[in-house]
């Protein structure tokens, strides 16, 4: 099919030539002088230490045994009595696995609603003709521009009026079809060649068939981006769940961590173990699906 | 292909959900693509419903509530400009406005410049560069709560940074106890978390800078700094404006970093409270002053829009 998505792998940065002898070339095939390369790697490693170091320090803290001095100066970078006991103790202190499950539920639901809702609305905006289409588009653009931080109180009272306060549904609802995702999907559909769908139309395919069999398979890449950012957004969200959830039973992981930090701030090992539990799934997800993360940022920036 | 069927299975449930308000029957005026008359609205309904009920309606009700004395459990009455008059005499509001403004001034220049330098650093396809790019992006992926708590521990009086500072003889620095150091530390965390995100945006922009420009400049004897200022910066200027706009709007609305590092009450005597923290503090709870919090939110809206216009206008001026 001509409409299949371009291979995202093609956008991945490629290694030019794996050096047998150390011979690195730049984009023009010119050799990069060794001293320049050394400077570059030194800088890269310095930034790496700054960006990854704090995560590793947190990991190290979470693995340190109860008798270790975590405050020593100069600091001990590696735990001398490594233990997983802190992770068990987090679970004794707060129901961290329940919180993680709550976060997972919201995140998965957010992925489903965003993919379905944004694909449908995006298709309606891109491919269908009806009176009021411009108004609908305008509504989504306006919604994208509204600063969410400014309307949380009104969102909260809306949820209370609906009797949804303090539920995971309330955590999910405001972002369950995000305007940005609708506009991303609209762009993806607009970039498809119209002829294929016209041909299907001539062959008697109705709008639903054209949508599911022709248009959707062709925008799988963008759909994946929407899915990933929907998952990450829901898993990482803090301000809105903080406002709408009051009962510790319904906490999501981020709110649970904040609670852990506020209540048991004295035990750094516990807080560290909690943050590792919260961040590890996303780092794994990111490691597996990097190219979609990077694509998403590009698309979101250009079209947002 | 198996994805479409999977999607169809879930999508098939949707018309029922979206059908709750029967959309007005409208016939396609041009009749180019005849379809079931209601189907476009059925397609758009879930999305429109969600943004209508949970974004646009709350936005409008915020604008309305700002002129009432509504509280969490009391509907409230129209009070005209009373809330805004009260704002003028509310010390906490001015503290919030000051801190949010300082945040923009501190964070935006760093987030416009540093990610560009970082993008230049990871631009060349040298071995292992994919790893470095991913590693630099990791803080973006992590939740702000995780990032905040990691840095709370790093900058603790007995944390890693102070342990190192003490070991090299500088002595302890109260990153999290001094009012100003706290705010600057939070800014640092915001920049640290944002670096990778804007780096990727710049990488995309840098890929479009014609190589010939650099070569020509090099032939003319321009050094690296000179080439950066005369070739790179002009070529990615529109991206810098975009990053500036995104970063300044985000910075003005800062909440989580300061909330986590300074605590819910905003540091010593609340001196580190930001505007959104104030909205959250004033507007929630059983006695939450919804009307007053909405008035603060309106200020947030106005400044946000003003910031956008300011940045975009700065762009246009440079064009002329």
From TrEMBL, chain A:
The keyword DNA repair does not apply. PROSITE patterns: ABC_TM1 (PS50928). It comes from the Bacteria. Residues 100-289 form the ABC transmembrane type-1 domain. CDD domains: TM_PBP2. Its main location: membrane. It is a multi-pass membrane protein. GO terms for biological process: transmembrane transport. It is found in: Cell membrane. InterPro entries: MetI-like (IPR000515), MetI-like_sf (IPR035906). Keywords: Cell membrane, Membrane, Transmembrane, Transmembrane helix, Transport. Belongs to the binding-protein-dependent transport system permease family. PANTHER family: ABC TRANSPORTER PERMEASE PROTEIN MG189-RELATED-RELATED, LACTOSE TRANSPORT SYSTEM PERMEASE PROTEIN LACG. This is Carbohydrate ABC transporter permease. It comes from Streptomyces triticagri.
TrEMBL record, chain B:
Residues 97-311 form the ABC transmembrane type-1 domain. It is a multi-pass membrane protein. The chain crosses the membrane at residues 40-60, 102-122, 134-154, 180-207, 228-252, 290-312. Keywords: Cell membrane, Membrane, Transmembrane, Transmembrane helix, Transport. InterPro entries: ABC_transporter_permease (IPR051393), MetI-like (IPR000515), MetI-like_sf (IPR035906). It is found in: Cell membrane. Belongs to the binding-protein-dependent transport system permease family. This is Sugar ABC transporter permease. It comes from Streptomyces triticagri. The lineage of its organism: Bacteria, Bacillati, Actinomycetota, Actinomycetes, Kitasatosporales.
């Amino acid at each position: 099919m001509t409409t299949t998505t371009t291979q995202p792998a093609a956008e991945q940065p490629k290694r030019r030539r794996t050096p047998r002898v150390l011979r690195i070339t730049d984009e023009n095939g010119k050799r990069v002088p060794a001293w320049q390369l050394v400077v570059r790697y030194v800088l890269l490693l310095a930034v790496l230490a700054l960006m990854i170091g704090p995560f590793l320090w947190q990991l190290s803290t979470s693995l340190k045994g109860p008798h270790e001095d975590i405050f020593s100066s100069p600091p001990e970078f590696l735990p001398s009595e490594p233990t997983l006991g802190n992770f068990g103790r987090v679970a004794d202190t707060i129901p961290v696995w329940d919180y993680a499950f709550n976060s997972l539920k919201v995140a998965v639901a957010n992925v489903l609603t965003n993919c379905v809702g944004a694909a449908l609305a995006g298709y309606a905006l891109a491919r269908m003709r009806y009176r009021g289409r411009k108004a609908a588009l305008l509504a989504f653009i306006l919604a994208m521009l509204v600063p969410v931080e400014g309307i949380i109180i009104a969102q909260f009272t809306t949820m209370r009026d609906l009797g949804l306060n303090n539920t995971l549904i309330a955590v999910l609802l405001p972002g369950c079809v995000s305007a940005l995702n609708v506009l991303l999907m609209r762009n993806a559909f607009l970039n498809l060649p119209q002829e294929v769908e016209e041909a299907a139309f001539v062959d008697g395919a109705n709008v639903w068939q054209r949508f599911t069999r022709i248009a959707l398979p062709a925008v799988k890449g963008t759909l994946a981006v929407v899915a990933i950012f929907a998952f990450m957004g829901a898993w990482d969200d803090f301000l809105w769940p903080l406002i709408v959830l009051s009962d510790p039973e319904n906490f999501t992981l981020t709110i649970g961590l904040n609670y852990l930090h506020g209540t048991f701030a004295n035990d750094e090992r516990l807080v560290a173990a909690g943050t590792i539990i919260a961040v590890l799934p996303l780092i794994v997800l990111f490691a597996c699906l990097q190219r979609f993360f990077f694509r998403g940022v590009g698309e979101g920036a250009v079209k947002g | 292909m198996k994805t479409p069927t999977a999607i169809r299975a879930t999508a098939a449930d949707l018309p029922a959900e979206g059908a709750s308000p029967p959309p007005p029957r409208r016939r396609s005026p041009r009749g180019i693509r005849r379809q079931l008359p209601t189907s476009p609205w059925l397609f758009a309904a879930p999305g429109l419903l969600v943004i209508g009920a949970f974004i646009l309606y709350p936005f409008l009700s915020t604008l309305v509530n700002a002129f009432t004395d509504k509280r969490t459990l009391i509907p409230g009455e129209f009070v005209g400009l009373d809330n805004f008059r009260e704002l003028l005499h509310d010390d906490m509001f001015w503290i919030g406005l000051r801190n949010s403004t300082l945040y923009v001034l501190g964070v935006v220049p760093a987030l416009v410049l540093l990610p560009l330098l970082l993008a230049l650093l990871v631009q060349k396809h040298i071995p292992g560069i994919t790893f470095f790019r991913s590693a630099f992006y990791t803080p973006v992926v992590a939740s702000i709560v995780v990032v905040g708590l990691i840095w709370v521990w790093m900058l603790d009086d007995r944390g890693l940074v102070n342990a190192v500072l003490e070991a090299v003889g500088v002595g302890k620095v109260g990153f999290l106890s001094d009012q100003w150091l706290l705010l600057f530390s939070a800014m640092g965390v915001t920049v640290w978390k944002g670096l990778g995100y804007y780096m990727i945006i710049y990488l995309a922009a840098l890929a479009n800078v014609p190589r010939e420009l650099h070569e020509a400049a090099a032939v003319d004897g321009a050094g690296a700094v000179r080439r950066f200022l005369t070739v790179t910066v002009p070529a990615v200027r529109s991206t810098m404006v975009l990053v500036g706009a995104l970063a300044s709007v985000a910075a003005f609305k800062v909440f989580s970093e300061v909330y986590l590092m300074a605590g819910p009450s905003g540091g010593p005597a609340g001196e580190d409270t930001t505007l959104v923290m104030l909205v959250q503090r004033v507007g929630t709870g059983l006695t939450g002053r919804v009307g007053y919090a909405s008035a603060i939110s309106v200020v947030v809206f106005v400044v946000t829009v003003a910031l956008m216009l300011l940045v975009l206008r700065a762009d246009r001026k440079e064009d002329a």
